[in-house]
Structure to design on (388 residues):
């Protein structure tokens, strides 16, 4: 009698609320499910898809690298890391910064906290109301959400202050004088519903960090990598952060995180480390993303299409407010509109994100076309128009 493979009862750990849809293929700003349905992707898988699904140049670059070498560790010279660093410096305009690569946004923020503490010899980090910085230890503690941090993550070393309240920010620094290692700020808070830090607030963060000798950490994981029309959303305020943390769009779907670190923060051997960060495949993916962004002028496209979407959305009834910059857009609906994201997905075949019950988020690929933008607008108009 032949041996039969024992059936496993292992299941997935049930922590995600998922739609009853299986996406099996994507191209550009469109994805397809296992039933053959076609969807317009206005969410990019949480702002991850920056140059479109299965972009040909991206696929070819990753495939070429995989055919040469998939992985070797940071114990040897990895030429692709320096090549990516040069590209990153050129596209961001921060070519005097240094690059450290890791695997995710939460890991990037954890490393930024460590660097700030190493650099200053201090323990406290200031975070901002509404913030989301990740689900790892200090990242979850710095996230403004009771359900994110487990008891073991709670620490007195994280201090919160309200977004866009400069007086409160000044008091927070003064009350913790000599203890603040750094402050972490999203120039645009995604999870909170596309809440935009004012230029004045960002400049106040820079001023106070200089005054108190603290490190300014710009969390650009969702709002960075060209999404707002500049490589870093913080750049709109005309100041430089000391550390920029990145992930999501940097790899167009390949898991990757990174930190751009100002030259006054000096490295030492063993200060940071990672097994998979900056591996050959990750660097090939990230370099391809930057090459496509520069060749196709995608930051300008993000600014142009984003401005168009915001302008047109503000003309639609049922919308209380439209917030954001470039292709990071929050649509706050009137309270009587419910399940809008659900209806867009299942009735109109358009993926969007949500933040609470009454805010939907648009985070499409940076190379979205005007035609696709118009289709999204028509779908939104349709679900927000009362039926007779």
């Amino acid at each position: 009698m032949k041996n039969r493979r024992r059936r496993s009862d292992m299941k997935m750990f049930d922590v995600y609320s998922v739609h009853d849809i299986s996406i099996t293929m994507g191209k550009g700003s469109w994805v397809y499910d296992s039933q053959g349905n076609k969807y317009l992707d206005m969410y990019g898988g949480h702002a991850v898809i920056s140059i479109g699904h299965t972009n040909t140049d991206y696929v070819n670059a990753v495939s070429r690298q995989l055919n040469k070498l998939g992985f070797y560790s940071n114990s040897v010279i990895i030429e692709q890391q320096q090549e990516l660093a040069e590209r990153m410096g050129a596209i961001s305009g921060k070519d005097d910064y240094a690059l450290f690569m890791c695997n995710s946004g939460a890991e990037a923020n954890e490393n930024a906290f460590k660097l700030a503490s190493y650099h200053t010899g201090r323990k406290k980090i200031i975070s901002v109301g509404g913030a989301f910085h990740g689900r790892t230890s200090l990242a979850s503690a710095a996230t403004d959400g009771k359900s994110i941090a487990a008891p073991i993550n709670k620490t007195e070393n994280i201090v919160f202050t309200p977004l866009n309240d400069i007086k409160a920010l000044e008091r927070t620094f003064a009350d913790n004088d000599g203890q603040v290692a750094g402050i972490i700020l999203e120039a645009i808070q995604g999870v909170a519903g596309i809440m935009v830090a004012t230029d004045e607030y960002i400049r106040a963060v820079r001023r106070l960090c200089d005054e108190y000798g603290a490190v300014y950490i710009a969390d650009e994981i969702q709002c960075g990598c060209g999404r707002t029309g500049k490589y870093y959303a913080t750049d709109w305020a005309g100041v430089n952060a000391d550390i920029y943390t990145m992930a999501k769009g940097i790899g167009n779907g390949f898991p990757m995180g990174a930190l751009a670190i100002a030259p006054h923060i000096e490295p030492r051997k063993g200060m940071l480390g990672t097994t998979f960060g900056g591996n050959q495949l990750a660097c090939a993916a990230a370099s391809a993303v930057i090459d496509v962004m520069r060749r196709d002028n995608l930051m300008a496209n993000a600014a142009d299409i984003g401005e168009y979407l915001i302008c047109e959305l503000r003309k639609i009834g049922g919308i209380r407010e439209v917030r954001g910059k470039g292709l990071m857009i929050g649509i706050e609906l009137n309270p009587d509109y419910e399940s809008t994201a659900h209806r867009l997905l299942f009735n109109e075949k358009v993926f969007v994100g949500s933040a609470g019950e009454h805010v939907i988020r648009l985070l499409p690929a940076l190379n979205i076309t005007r035609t696709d933008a118009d289709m999204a607008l028509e779908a939104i108009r349709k679900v927000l128009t009362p039926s007779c």
Summary: The chain has a mean pLDDT of 96.
